[in-house]
Amino acid sequence: MASSDWPGSLVADRAPGSAGALIPAIARAHRAMGERLLQGTGLRTGQELVISLLGDSPGRSQAEITRWLGVEPPTTAKMLARMERAGFVERVRSTEDRRVMLVTLTEKGRSLHHRVGELWSELNRITTAGLSDKDQLELERLLLRVLENLTPGDSPVLE
Amino acid sequence: MASSDWPGSLVADRAPGSAGALIPAIARAHRAMGERLLQGTGLRTGQELVISLLGDSPGRSQAEITRWLGVEPPTTAKMLARMERAGFVERVRSTEDRRVMLVTLTEKGRSLHHRVGELWSELNRITTAGLSDKDQLELERLLLRVLENLTPGDSPVLE
DNA sequence: GAATAATAGTAAGTCGGCTAATGTTTTCGT
DNA sequence: ACGAAAACATTAGCCGACTTACTATTATTC
Questions:
Q1: How far is A91 from chain B (nearest CA, A)?
Q2: What is the model's pTM?
Q3: DSSP conformation class of B59
Q4: How many residue contacts between A and B have a Cβ separation below 8 Å?
Q5: How many distinct structural domains can be found in chain A?
Q6: Residue B21 banded pLDDT, cuts 50, 70, 90
Q7: How confident is the model over A115-139, as pLDDT tens digits?
Q8: How far is the alpha carbon of A100 from chain B, nearest alpha carbon, in Å?
Q9: In a domain, A108, yes or no
Q10: How many CB atoms lie under 10 A from the CB of residue B105?
Q11: A60-61 sheet: strands from edge to edge
């Protein structure tokens, strides 16, 4: 009774094509699981991506980070401000182009790089647990298609 | 150049099992599309679910709505407070059990019920565009499994 | 070279979502 | 019956995300 009355209500009702109703639920669960795994690191969900990116290629501008995350500039600005306040990153104005803020990991941030990679793999493992390799590929294929469906205008003219 | 440098960065890197990286991206895109479709109604994403539920079965308590949405109580409380302020719902204290707040649609809210159903179908149509019926079922199956993977403890002991 | 456009970042305000803490009212167990 | 436990709702505060301004800088273009 407790396992199927939940977003099941949504799912059960509209028989075909109910995949859409699952998306917000999965997103919440995925975020919650990520948050759980990140406990102890001091990071919040989403920030681990910044650690990962800057760990691999330091000194990126906020604009680059923004594009890489696929979010809007204010989202990045706020997150980085918090991460700076928490001591994970440092931001310095570029001397070449005084509009840009170059972001680098602090020692504290750098020390989390490896752990973040592990946790990320762990999250992926949990997410796709019980799915065969074939299922995983199938899932990726379908999700990519869904993502394309939901981001019109993001695709350039050709290709 | 613009289509593959985006969460593609995440996807391309970690070859197998990268489905997890797609989830937040899809969730954002799905929400954005929903927001777009809801334009003109005055509703924000998530609120349409309340309209839909209360339209089908009026006079539910916030706790019921909370369980149905699958979120935490404060989320529901805040959302309903906004929806009440916007004139979509009304909340009255139950006389039978004075702890509960019974929520009903106002005329304004009720007038959106049908439209919300249409928009919801439309969103589902957009989301699964280009997928065969078989693919849609496959996607649902995989997503349900992922949801189960990500919500441990949500499942009772048996079944 | 000066006016204009494009780019980088910030500020303010809104919303969905969460946790933790609090207050009320029922319900339950002894 | 009475005190403890459970259930309903709210408040406060945080984070990620978005839109809509707005500032500062660099590029363009006439």
A1: 23
A2: 0.88
A3: S
A4: 188
A5: 1
A6: confident
A7: 999 999 999 999 999 999 999 999 9
A8: 20
A9: yes
A10: 21
A11: A60-61, A101-105, A89-93
Distance CA B128, CA B105 (A): 30
Domain span at A55: 26-139
* Residue environment code for A55-78, b if the CB has 16+ CB neighbours within 10 A, otherwise e: beeeebbbebbbbbbbbeeeebee
Q: Is the pLDDT of residue B2 over 80?
A: no
**In sequence order, what are the residues at sequence separation of 6 or more whose Cβ sits closer than 8 angstroms to the Cβ of residue B57?**
none
The spacing between the Cα labelled CA in B47 and the C1' in D4, in angstroms, equals: 38
A44 CB and strand D closer than 7 A? yes
| CA distance readout (Å), B98 to B61, B68, B105, B113 | 11, 21, 20, 28
B93 part of a folded domain: yes
Residue of A10, A57, A142 for testing the chain B interface, max B β-carbons within 10 Å:
A142
A13 is a domain residue = no
CATH of the domain at B109: 1.10.10.10
> Do the domain assignments include residue B86?
yes
Assign A111 to helix, strand or coil.
Answer: coil
Which residue type sits at A30?
H
Which residues is A104 bridged to in the sheet? A90
The answer to whether B6 contacts A70, with C-beta atoms less than 8 Å apart, is yes
B131-139, Cβ contacts within 8 angstroms, sequence gap of 24 or more: B131/A142, B131/A145, B131/A146, B133/A16, B135/A142, B136/A16, B136/A17, B136/A19, B138/A138, B138/A142, B139/A19, B139/A139, B139/A142, B139/A146
A5 CB-near residues (< 8 Å, 6+ apart): B67, B68
Residue partners of B11: CB distance under 8 A and separation at least 6? A140, A144, B18, B21, B22
| Cα-Cα-Cα-Cα dihedral sign, residues B123, B127, B128, B130 | positive
Q: Which of A156, A10, A33 is nearest to B70 (CA)?
A: A10
